[in-house]
Amino acid sequence: MGPCLRRGTNTKAGPMSFTLAYNLDEADAIGAAIGGVLAPGDVVLLSGDLGAGKTTLARAMLKARGLAGEAPSPTFAIVQPYAPPEVDLPIAHVDLYRIEEPRDLIELGLDDYLSDGALLIEWPDRLGGDGWPGALELTISGAGDARVLTARVPPAWEARWPLP
Ligand SMILES: Nc1ncnc2c1ncn2[C@@H]1O[C@H](COP(=O)(O)OP(=O)(O)OP(=O)(O)O)[C@@H](O)[C@H]1O
Ligand SMILES: [Mg+2]
User: So where does this one cross the membrane (predicted)?
Assistant: First the structure.
């Protein structure tokens, strides 16, 4: 089996936190594991510098839900929604990099997607606050072949952790 976030360690008290070094192949398995347990109402936040690997993980999650072909980066579209039958769970892949004002964010109406689907959000720090306290927060650091993923697992996700 691929790399498991199971391998991660619970680094501190409070929200569970896991850290894992991973390569490009493992990114696919990690994304698939998270994508496989996504349910309506879930929010996954993907943080990290330019080119950290946020879209790569989101792509693997979408692939796990049935998307054929490579999901485009939503950098320019900002919101890229997917719906059945191309995926088995409605998922909106969002990139907030170009959002400058809170008002622009409100206009996206992201919460509407949560009634029957999930949100994958790159550059969530553009929200300027904690928009979704129940979100699974993934942060990628490092570059080249030395990338590290940190997952902050909120209570809403604890029952699903560790992932297969
Ligand atoms: N774990 C990894 N190990 C090695 N290379 C990786 C890993 N994850 C992603 N990459 C590579 O890093 C590059 C950037 O990845 P990606 O587009 O996913 O980053 P991003 O964080 O979404 O960037 P942006 O900030 O522009 O949205 C790609 O070439 C990808 O293949
Ligand atoms: Mg990206």
Answer: none
